[in-house]
Design brief:
small GTPase binding; Leucine-rich repeat, LRR (right-handed beta-alpha superhelix); ten-stranded parallel β-sheet; 18 helices; Leu-rich_rpt; 12 strands; LRR_dom_sf; repeat; alpha/beta; two-stranded antiparallel sheet; 429 residues
């Protein structure tokens, strides 16, 4: 039931229907605009339904009040196993209620609270709760504005927790001290199998410590450490150390580091000898800056969107469902119309100036998926103008296409002129 945008009366009616349902085990209410009031009605489901095990409430703008209602309902619920409450604008206050859920509930095994910008104070509370939890096996706490102090508290909780096997905490800016604290915690938590610390401002010291610690991480299988501050030299040394002692690793993501010959050689050895896949970037310096006008235009648009906190989903909210095969095509003009209508731009004069700068190539079509790739590339700090070309980049320009069609038309006309006409009498002979 995604994207329905349920009203308060809808939420009340639906909760009454589901409350005593005997077979419903999974409920997906992603992006329904429930708000705190709607959440209040759905909490009745959690208090009374004994069959629901999988609940998705992401992107519902629940806020701190919604988190409070949820925590209250989950105190007595011992049936829910998987809960996704990501991107709900909890903030610090709501984050503390999330800590209460982790501490009080004894049935939830998978919890996603990513994208709620809970900050350090709430992360400290979650770290303490994590140390006392005996049921949680997967926690996604990425994109939450957690810094060094919060990371250290999470590390302390991770040390004590003996059940957590998946810990995803990317895009949080832990820094050197926070990162090292988490690596030390991983050494003491011998059951962790997947760790996500991508884009956490980790540096070479943390990577070096991680390399020395792999031997102690007996169960670690998947490691995400891309988009950090690692130098190519230290990244190469880290991968080289894995050749001799890969532990249980089967996958390492170290994207964002320019791939030197040494790094690529180490990655190749890991794949050949240990079947360990390393995900890394090709060196952008070996590619020429693209001359494609469309790419340059899209980069400028994305840089403008970043200033106003606009995402591709804000402009085209349903594109992932409508464009599964990546064939939905748009133009620059349609992107500008979407920006005007999204309600997130306060200064339209700047938008107009950008529109005036991007006159050339505005008629070129491109897919929304390609637009999303450019957005992710720019936001992650990559040099998009040197990145691997998208499909649209390889297409001929409109002018070249017109010239090609005209050339084919002339050739066809010329062939018709020179083709000899054979008299009917000769054909009979």
């Amino acid at each position: 039931m995604k994207y329905r945008y349920l009203s308060k009366s809808d939420a009340r009616t639906l909760s009454n229907l589901i409350k005593n349902h005997l077979t419903l085990a999974s409920l997906d209410l992603d992006d329904n605009g429930l708000g705190a009031r709607g959440m209040q009605y759905f909490c009745e489901i959690l208090k009374e339904n004994k069959h629901l095990t999988d609940l998705i409430l992401s992107r519902n703008n629940l806020g701190p009040s919604g988190a409070k209602h949820l925590r209250s309902a989950l105190i007595t619920n011992c049936f829910l196993i998987k809960l996704d409450i990501s991107e709900n604008n909890f903030g610090e206050k709501g984050g503390k209620y999330c800590a209460g859920i982790i501490e009080d509930n004894v049935s939830i095994k998978e919890l996603n609270i990513s994208g709620n910008y809970i900050g350090d104070t709430a992360a400290i509370a979650i770290g303490k709760a994590l140390g006392n939890n005996i049921s949680l096996r997967s926690l996604d706490i990425s994109w939450n504005n957690i810094r060094e102090n919060g990371a250290i508290s999470l590390a302390n909780g991770l040390k004590k927790n003996t059940e957590l096997v998946v810990f995803l905490a990317g895009n949080n800016g832990f820094g050197d001290e926070g990162g090292r604290a988490l690596v030390q915690a991983m050494k003491q938590n011998s059951v962790v199998q997947e760790v996500g610390l991508d884009a956490c401002r980790l540096n070479d010291k943390t990577l070096k410590l991680l390399g020395h610690s792999i031997g102690s991480l007996a169960d670690l299988q998947r490691l995400h450490i891309g988009s950090n501050l690692f130098t190519p030299q230290q990244a190469s040394l880290f991968l080289a150390s894995l050749v001799n002692n890969p532990g249980a690793l089967v996958y390492v993501n170290i994207q964002g580091v320019p791939a030197t010959d040494q790094l690529k050689a180490a990655a190749g050895s890991l794949l050949t000898v240990h079947n360990l896949l390393v995900n890394f970037d090709d060196p952008p310096a070996r590619r020429e800056v693209t001359r494609d006008v469309l790419t340059r235009n899209l980069v400028q648009i994305v840089e403008f969107m970043e200033k106003f906190g606009i995402t591709v989903e804000d402009l085209f909210p349903d594109y992932e469902d409508e464009d599964e095969d990546g064939q939905l095509m748009i133009t620059i003009k349609e992107v500008f119309v979407a920006m005007e209508c999204c309600g997130l731009i306060s200064k339209f004069d700047k938008l107009q100036k950008l529109r005036e700068r991007l006159q050339q190539g505005k008629g070129r079509k491109f897919s929304i998926q390609e637009f999303s790739k450019v957005y992710e590339s720019v936001c992650s700090g990559q040099d998009t103008l040197r990145a691997a070309p998208l499909r649209t980049h390889l297409r001929k320009s409109l002018k070249e296409e017109r010239e090609e069609k005209e050339r084919q038309r002339r050739q066809s006309k010329q062939r018709r002129r020179v083709t000899p006409l054979v008299p009917a009498a000769l054909e009979d002979e």
